[in-house]
Amino acid sequence: MDLEDLKARLPREAAARVRSLKQSGETLTAILDASGLDAAARNALEREAHSALAGAPGVGEVRVALMADKAEQPARTGPVIVAVGSGKGGVGKSTLTANLAVALARAGRKVGLVDADVYGPSQPTLLDTEGQRPRAEGDKLVPVMSRFGVPMLSMGHLVEPGKALAWRGPMASGAFGQLVDAIWGDVEVILLDLPPGTGDVQITMLQKHKPAGAVIVSTPQDLALIDAQRAAQLFEQGKVPIIGLVENMAGYVCPHCGETSDPFGRGGAQAAAEQAGIPFLGRIPLSLSVRQASDAGTPPAAGEGEDAAPFSAIAARVGEWLDRRTG
Ligand SMILES: Nc1ncnc2c1ncn2[C@@H]1O[C@H](COP(=O)(O)OP(=O)(O)OP(=O)(O)O)[C@@H](O)[C@H]1O
Question: Does the keyword field hold Transmembrane (predicted)?
Answer without folding.
Answer: no
